[in-house]
Design brief:
Structural class: mainly alpha
Radius of gyration: 26 Å
Helix content: over 70%
Order of helices and strands: HHHHHH
CATH architecture of the largest domain: Orthogonal Bundle
Number of domains: 2
Strand content: under 5%
Shape: elongated
Organism: Actinomycetospora chibensis
Protein name: XRE family transcriptional regulator
Distance between the termini: 84 Å
Number of strands: 0
Largest sheet: none
Keywords: Coiled coil
CATH superfamily of the largest domain: lambda repressor-like DNA-binding domains
CATH topology of the largest domain: 434 Repressor (Amino-terminal Domain)
Length: about 130
């Protein structure tokens, strides 16, 4: 498996600029040392990094945890973190459908409560 550390460095550098972040802030967010981040950003030392390090840096840069690992290996970002884009879309469709059902139930419940209140008011008014 080829590893493209230059692509990782470019991605980190561009994302830092996009977010307006300094390495110190990224270190705080990701809990990765500034020296390690500097090595990654400038591609100064190519060595094996744990996937946890790349995951933490990805998260610190407001990306999904597997983003930099995908950049490193050249795998499509539609498979970030081992989850295919189709699976995510399918899950979101299911959530959307369930939300529609819940909204329908809430509307019905609201209508039922409204009817109960009107009935109760009518009975109280009739008793006066």
């Amino acid at each position: 498996m080829t590893q493209d550390w230059k692509a990782v460095a470019t991605a980190i550098d561009q994302r830092l600029l996009e977010l307006g972040l300094e390495l110190r802030e990224l270190a705080r967010r990701s809990k990765v040392s500034e020296s390690t981040l500097r090595e990654l950003r400038y591609n100064s030392k190519q060595r094996r990094r744990s996937s946890r390090t790349l995951s933490d840096v990805s998260t610190g840069l407001e990306w999904p945890p597997g983003h930099l690992e995908s950049v490193l290996t050249g795998s499509p970002t539609s498979e970030v973190g081992g989850v295919g884009l189709d699976a995510v879309v399918n899950r979101l469709d299911a959530v959307d459908s369930r939300l529609d059902e819940m909204n329908s139930l809430l509307r019905q419940l609201s209508n039922d409560v409204g009817e109960l209140l009107r009935t109760d008011r009518g009975e109280r008014d009739a008793g006066r």
